[in-house]
Amino acid sequence: MDLFETQGIADTGIPAYSPDAPLAVRMRPTSLDEVVGQGHILADGAPLRRLLEPSSNGSPGLSSVILWGPPGTGKTTLAYLVARASQRRFAEISAVSAGVKDIREVVASAKRRTAATGEDTILFVDEVHRFSKSQQDALLPAVENRWVTLVAATTENPSFSVISPLLSRSLLQVLRPLDEDAIRALLDRAVVDPRGLDGDYGLADDARDALVRLAGSDARKSLTLLEAAAGAAAQAGDALIGVDHVETAANQALVRWDQDQHYDVASAFIKSMRGSDVDAALHYLARMIEAGEDPRFIARRVMISAAEDVGMAAPEVLATTVAAAQGVAMIGMPEARILLAEAVVAVATAPKSNAVYLGVDAALSDLRAGKGGPVPMHLRDAHYSGAKDLGHGADYIYAHDAPHHVAAQQYLPDDLVGTRYYEPTSNGNEAMLTKRLAALRDLLGMR
Question: Which end of the chain is less congested by CB atoms within 10 angstroms, N or C?
Answer without folding.
Answer: N
